[in-house]
Hints:
Elements: H1 2-6, E1 12-16, H2 23-37, E2 42-47, H3 50-69, E3 75-78, E4 83-86, E5 91-96, H4 100-107, E6 113-116, H5 124-131, E7 144-149, H6 157-164, E8 177-181, H7 195-198, H8 205-211, H9 234-240
Parallel strand pairs: 1-7, 1-8, 2-5, 2-6, 6-7
Antiparallel strand pairs: 3-4, 4-5
Helix pairs in contact: 2-3
Amino acid sequence: ALELLRDSANKHILLAGGARSGKTYLFVLAVVSRAAQYSESRHLIARLRFSHAKLSIWMDTLQKVLHDHIPKEAYTLNETDHYMRFANGSEVWIDGLDDKDRVDKILGREYSTLFFNEISQLPYDTVTTVLTRLSQSIPGCRNMAYYDCNPAGRLHWANKIFLHGELPDGKPCGPGYAYLKVNPEDNKDNLPPRYIEDILERLPEMKRKRFLLGEWTDPEGTIFTNWDVAEITDEIRLHSRHTYGLDFG
């Protein structure tokens, strides 16, 4: 994962995999480190809902990262607007994308880093709107977009972009996109004893695939799983196989 962060060819990086695999911690550490390194830079960590961002990032992961890596005298925390400010003038903001006023506030600033946390919950249109603000010009600082999630359904926009190299409209996404699967087993040294065996291994099969194995699966509730999306050609219609279109209503 660190190699992906260091590679100058990458501008968009997705870490996807099972629960408690260290994805969010690593990206928050990367954001904080960039803020500490580049004076006057601005960085955003966002989830769909601000309440979730506040609980999981502001009150949990960010505090752990600061405790482990950043001396207290190097920054101040604004508990009202939920941002941290470094002595060098850089800022790291925590926000949600589920409210028009919050999104408008985000769109009023430029950023050097955008970290979209739990993108399985985020609409692609929202992400592309916020990406327009990845435009701050800081000498020596490459603007970066980070994404993480427990894998969602295989039709999710992130699966199409990062695993198949195409945008939701079918066009090639171009260079600069990197993907890595990280699972709980990769982070076992930092997990409670037998967390994997007693919790994740015993989940229902669909959740086990997602939260233990980090697999992109069919959406929950899917009735048929052995299917493809394809153009209906004469070859398919007449010679290859049976093809159906249906709607369960």
